UniProtKB/TrEMBL annotation:
It comes from the Bacteria. Pfam families: AAA_3 (PF07726), AAA_lid_2 (PF17863). Gene3D superfamilies: Magnesium chelatase subunit I, C-Terminal domain, P-loop containing nucleotide triphosphate hydrolases. It comes from Gottfriedia luciferensis. Signal peptide: none annotated. Residues 34-176 form the AAA+ ATPase domain. This is Magnesium chelatase. PANTHER family: METHANOL DEHYDROGENASE REGULATOR, MOXR FAMILY PROTEIN.
């Protein structure tokens, strides 16, 4: 079974629990094989937790969830050294970050200090507790959520530098009428989560992580990626454009898109397909532009503005 068939099977399994989100599953998979973390934005009740749990189950990975609140401490995330009265010595207790898929629920409710502790773990893929360094499992991916319509009172929005550390941002929209009807039928008698099957192993994902790096990018497509990036840095609606970290993320996600379509090369269409997910959350719009537009609309205008290279087999 090739990777496209594996991905189709993965989508089919998760669609028993989360209906109508095949494109989202595809993006999460691209992030997974690129060691990338995800920021999920959605109104409450659209299945963010179920999506993360379902993904962990289908790849045979471990799953943990942290509910972020203002009183959550960094040690609640990473772990602590504690004194064991019976043993009369200090023992290490590693926090919930010791997992394959970590759901950081409502990350913007925690204080900046606690947010920073998680973001450090995301970057280093290890925890240091009282001088002892412990590597995290492989793969390790954080799916952080935040509610876009929530009042800013009592929340701590992630600064631009920390937003940039997320590989991609995905907005979960409301289901359509027909999708919601299917949800009602699926959940009428029981929760389909318990019937989910394992599709991939962690070893197979490790192999895919290496294989995706071999997907080639022509000079024309490299220039196309750079033209998109540099246009964001000189755009009248954008105060802060895409960083070099964002450039690399767009390149790797484009490789991932080609890879899951069983291609050994990246096309301009691959770049366009992933650009919104990779770039929108990295922008800072000017005050004037932010009144009339959102970041997604600005990225769409950038993609329309940049000339697409004509390349053999580019799938335009």
């Amino acid at each position: 079974m090739n990777r496209s068939e594996k991905l189709l099977q993965l989508k089919k399994e998760i669609s028993h629990v989360i209906i109508g989100k095949e494109d989202v599953v595809e993006m999460i998979f691209i992030a997974l094989i690129n060691n990338g973390h995800i920021l999920l934005e959605s109104v409450p009740g659209t299945g963010k937790t179920q999506l993360a749990k379902s993904f962990a189950k289908t790849i045979n990975g471990s799953f943990k969830r942290i509910q972020f609140t203002p009183d959550l401490l960094p040690s609640d995330v990473t772990g602590i050294q504690f004194f064991h009265p019976k043993e009369q010595d200090f023992q290490l207790r590693i926090g919930p970050v010791m997992t394959n898929i970590l759901l950081a629920d409502e990350i913007n409710r925690a204080t900046p200090r606690t947010q920073a502790s998680l973001l450090e773990v995301m970057e280093e893929r290890q925890v240091t507790i009282d001088g002892e360094t412990i590597p995290l499992p492989n793969p390790f991916i954080v799916i952080a959520t935040q509610n876009p319509i929530e009042s800013q009172q009592g929340t701590f929005p992630l600064p631009e530098a920390q937003m940039d550390r997320f590989f991609m941002q995905i907005s979960l929209k409301y289901p359509t009428f027909e999708e919601e009807k299917s949800i009602m039928k699926s959940y009428r008698s029981n929760t389909p989560f318990s019937n989910l099957k394992n599709v991939l192993t962690l070893e197979e994902i490790d192999e895919m992580k290496e294989q995706v790096k071999t997907v080639t990018i022509s000079e024309e497509v490299e220039d196309y990626i750079l033209n998109i990036i540099h246009t964001t840095r000189n755009h009248e609606d954008i105060q802060l454009g895409i960083s070099p970290r964002g450039t690399l993320a767009l390149m790797r996600a484009s490789q991932g898109k080609a890879y899951i379509n069983n291609r050994s090369f990246v096309t301009p269409q691959d770049v366009k397909d992933v650009a919104i997910y990779l770039l929108s959350h990295r922008l800072v719009l000017t005050l004037e532009a932010s009144i009339k537009k959102n970041a997604t609309q600005v990225i769409e205008s950038v993609l329309n503005q940049v000339e697409v290279p004509v390349e053999a087999g580019a799938g335009q």
